[in-house]
């Protein structure tokens, strides 16, 4: 990493000649973005199928011979890890970060194109190492996506030898890839902005990606540190995390290590990770809402402050994931308080999204539907987060389906809805063609209502005390028969939602050839990426002259202006109107 | 505070002023990236040190005997950082010969430092009652190992710079590389002093 960061060649724009240098070993940020996106979606499909298998066991226990307890835990673990790291993080930062940052700030490419290319190939290596763990003796690790020691590396846990080693290796490789990408994104935002693009004129998408990348650069080291130390515990028998323990009836050679230390390190990464995924989603959804409501984003400055404050605070809330591990009550009190405080800037963002819609000239396009769907889902998942942030409420609920419902709503479905919104929104720029509208609407309604059908009832299961992580529930006094019926219903809903994602994939491919021609600016948006001379943008993005920026990104429906949007490249002298500053904050 | 005043600007008020150049546009992106990268490395070492401080409170912790060789190694690393600074100054004055000389010296001293660290490893390893899995020695290997790996990464860049200057490039063209190397070395010296102090104190 060091080497590449320092020794990278000065940027030279050379038009790639052959197919291979154009599409495979490409240094063009747009191609790299698509490579990232395709890889992330492919590995995400694996995780989707795993979620089906999980649900089949819970909905119809023991109906399927090939799901035994060991493989069930392997499915759960791999589903979680793939979705959080290899799909969401990679798709939002590697995919959208790569595509949008240079285009939105008016740059020709990332500042280190070669390192950017390496970032993708190292990411691909991380994915391949992870996938390889399905084929090693013992299979992939079944330790849960949090990989807690001691069980993660003790016999009896599925994949406690090869599975966990490959998982940790893959994470370390992923972090190397992320660091190479992240250095690029941050440096590009700081340095490669075109003339007139001040920090406070950047679209909120770029702000979200920028702050999320900084979070990632500072938080992923915690995963690196804990991963390396656990690898050493597993491979050469150190006792960083491993306590003295009796393993399979025999005293193990470990002694004195601290599993809690691992949890602190893991969640010092794990909580910022939530915002590494959420902040880009916040930014992107702000831009989509503003564009399709034909209104400037409400409280632009406040949105940026909120992003920065959330980013900073995300480092001091981590232990709210560990209330059930046991901790000093004052410690718990501190983390409960910070958790509630971080909800304030988050709530401000939600209010601002809603106020952006207020009296807007809303166009219910497919991206807009997904963006509005995000607001609902995010409010729902966020509110349950306020419950769980309190120690006394968390203790009884922590090991139940209430938590499964909470985090799937807030950091599973919410960012995925934004990702869909973003794909429908920017696909015309990426390919030059529109995605099919009817298929898009079917996809939205099945996904939105379907995910509610899956996760909403889980809150009730959680209240009943149905424990999460269990392979089967057996006979208990507190889980009624009807809970099983609900679980079966959820499973059927999950299968349906999954199937309709394939309609979306079909739409992606079909529209590539048969979609309506998009033109350069189908949504009549103001931001720079819609003002490129070619669609899709050519290598170097801007032709001979870089664009100049004369205004912020949200001049929609400006009173007196001839059209309801003024692109950022239009000088004030051409349209001497401005929004009503008397009534804006 | 320029960050605060940036965050206070009101971009929605239309401005007829000509668009301003990005103030950072003339800085080398490599410099900016190095600063950001040092932030990442700081995070790594901060977390390793935090883990060390927490782990040493557990019952089975037996402190290591301080190795005298570490003092010597520290001196060598200081000297290497010093040599890099001289190389950087010389490159600034376009003195090709002395840039090359100090650059080679700095790399050589770094290699001496790394060999010295391996010698300490050897010493701890041959200490009869210490085994690899003992927490204090495991942390010693880990912290010095990670620090050494960062130096090795730096040496890769150093090697590329040396090859370039030996193959006839002027001092001017390698100036940026020498400068960034020296910053990186000073930084790693600082990290080492911190680690060394920590190891001495515990």
Distance between the termini of chain B: 39 Å
Quote the CATH topology of the domain at 25-202 in chain A. Cytochrome C Oxidase, Chain A
Helical stretch count of chain A? 15
Strand content of chain B: under 5%
Q: CATH class of chain B, please?
A: Mainly Alpha
Unreliable spans of chain B:
none
**Total beta-strand segments of chain A:** 2
CATH architecture of the domain at 25-202 in chain A: Up-down Bundle
Strands of the biggest beta sheet of chain A: in what spatial order? Answer: 1-2
* Rounded average pLDDT of chain A: 93
CATH class of the domain at 25-202 in chain A: Mainly Alpha
What report would you give on this structure?
The complex is a heterodimer of chains A (585) and B (202). With 585 residues, chain A is mainly α. Among the domains of chain A are: 25-202, Cytochrome C Oxidase, Chain A (Up-down Bundle); 364-470 and 479-523, no CATH class; 555-585, no CATH class. Chain A is built from 15 helices and two strands. A two-stranded antiparallel sheet of chain A has the order 1-2. In chain A, strand 1 and strand 2 (250-251) form a beta hairpin. Chain A is globular and about 80 Å long. Chain A starts with a helix and ends in a 71-residue tail after the last helix. Chain B has one domain: Up-down Bundle (Four Helix Bundle (Hemerythrin (Met), subunit A)). Chain B has six helices and no strands. Chain B is mostly helical. In chain B, helix 3 runs antiparallel to helix 4 and helix 5 (135-166) packs antiparallel against helix 6 (175-201). Chain B has helices spanning 2-8, 29-55, 69-92, 96-126, 135-166, 175-201. Classes of the chains: A mainly alpha (585), B mainly alpha (202). At the A-B interface, helix 1, helix 6, helix 7, helix 8 and helix 9 of A face helix 1, helix 2, helix 5 and helix 6 of B.
């Amino acid at each position: 990493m060091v080497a590449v960061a320092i020794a990278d060649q000065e940027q030279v724009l050379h038009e790639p000649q052959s197919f291979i240098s154009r599409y495979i070993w490409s240094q063009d940020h747009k191609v790299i973005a698509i490579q990232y996106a395709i890889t992330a979606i492919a590995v995400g499909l694996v995780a989707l199928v795993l979620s089906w298998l999980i649900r089949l066991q819970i909905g119809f226990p023991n109906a399927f011979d090939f799901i035994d307890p060991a493989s069930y835990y392997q499915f759960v673990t791999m589903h979680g890890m793939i979705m959080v790291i290899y799909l969401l993080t990679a798709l939002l930062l590697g995919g959208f970060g790569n595509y949008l940052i240079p285009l939105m700030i008016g740059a020709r490419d990332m500042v280190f194109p070669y390192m950017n290319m390496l970032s993708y190939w190292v990411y691909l290596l991380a994915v391949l190492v992870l996938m390889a763990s399905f084929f090693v003796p013992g299979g992939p690790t079944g330790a849960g996506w949090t990989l807690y020691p001691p069980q993660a590396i003790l016999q009896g846990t599925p994949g406690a030898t090869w599975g966990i080693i490959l998982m940790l290796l893959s994470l370390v490789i992923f972090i190397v890839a992320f660091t190479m990408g992240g250095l690029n994104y941050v440096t590009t935002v700081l340095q490669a902005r075109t003339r007139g693009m001040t920090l406070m004129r950047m679209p909120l998408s770029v702000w979200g990606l920028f702050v999320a990348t900084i979070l990632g650069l500072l938080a992923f080291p915690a995963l690196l540190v804990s991963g390396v130390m656990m690898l050493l515990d597993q491979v050469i028998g150190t006792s960083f995390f491993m306590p003295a323990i009796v393993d399979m009836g025999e005293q193990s050679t470990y002694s004195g290590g601290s599993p809690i230390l691992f949890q602190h390190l893991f969640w010092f990464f794990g909580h910022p990770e939530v915002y590494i995924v959420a902040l880009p989603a916040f930014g992107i959804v702000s831009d989509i809402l503003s564009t399709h409501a034909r209104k400037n984003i409400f409280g632009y400055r406040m949105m940026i402050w909120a992003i920065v404050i959330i980013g900073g605070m995300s480092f001091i809330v981590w232990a709210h994931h560990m209330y059930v591990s046991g901790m000093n009550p004052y410690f718990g009190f501190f983390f409960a308080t910070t958790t509630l405080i971080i909800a304030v800037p988050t709530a401000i963002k939600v209010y601002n999204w809603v106020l952006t819609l207020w009296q807007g000239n809303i166009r219910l396009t497919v991206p807009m539907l997904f963006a509005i769907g995000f607001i609902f889902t995010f409010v729902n998942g966020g509110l349950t987060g306020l419950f769980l942030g309190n120690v006394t409420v968390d203790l009884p609920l922590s090991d139940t389906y209430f938590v499964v419902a909470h985090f799937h709503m807030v950091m599973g479905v919410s960012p995925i809805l934004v990702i869909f919104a973003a794909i429908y929104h920017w696909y015309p720029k990426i390919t030059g063609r529109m995605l099919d509208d009817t298929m898009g609407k079917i996809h939205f309604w099945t996904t939105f209502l379907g995910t509610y059908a899956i996760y909403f009832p889980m809150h009730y299961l959680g209240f009943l005390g149905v424990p999460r992580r269990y392979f089967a529930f057996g006979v208990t006094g507190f889980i009624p028969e009807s809970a099983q019926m609900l679980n079966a219903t959820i499973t059927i809903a999950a299968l349906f939602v999954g199937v309709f994602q394939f309609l979306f994939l079909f739409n992606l491919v079909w529209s590539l050839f048969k979609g309506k021609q998009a033109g350069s600016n189908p949504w009549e948006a103001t931001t720079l990426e819609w003002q490129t001379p070619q669609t899709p943008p050519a290598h170097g993005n801007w032709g001979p002259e870089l664009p100049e920026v004369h205004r912020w990104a949200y001049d929609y429906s400006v009173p007196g202006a001839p059209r309801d949007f003024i692109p950022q490249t239009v000088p004030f002298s051409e349209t001497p109107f401005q929004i009503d500053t008397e009534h804006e904050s | 505070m320029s960050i605060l005043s940036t965050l206070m600007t009101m971009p929605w008020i239309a401005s007829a002023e000509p668009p301003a150049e990005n103030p950072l546009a003339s800085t080398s992106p490599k410099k900016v990236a190095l600063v950001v990268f040092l932030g990442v490395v700081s995070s790594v070492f901060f977390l390793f040190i935090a883990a060390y401080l927490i782990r040493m409170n557990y019952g089975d912790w037996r402190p290591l005997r301080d190795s005298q060789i570490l003092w010597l190694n520290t001196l060598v690393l200081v000297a290497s950082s010093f040599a890099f600074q001289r190389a950087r100054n010389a490159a600034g004055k376009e003195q090709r010969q002395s840039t090359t000389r100090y650059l080679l010296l700095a790399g050589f001293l770094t290699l001496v430092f790394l060999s010295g660290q391996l010698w300490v490893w050897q010493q701890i390893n041959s200490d009869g009652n210490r085994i690899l899995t003992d927490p204090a020695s495991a942390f010693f290997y880990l912290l010095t190992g990670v620090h050494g790996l960062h130096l090795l990464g730096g040496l890769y860049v150093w090697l590329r710079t040396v090859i370039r200057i030996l193959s006839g490039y002027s001092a001017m063209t390698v100036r940026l590389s020498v400068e960034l190397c020296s910053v990186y070395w000073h930084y790693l010296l600082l990290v080492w002093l911190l680690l060394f102090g920590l190891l001495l104190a515990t």
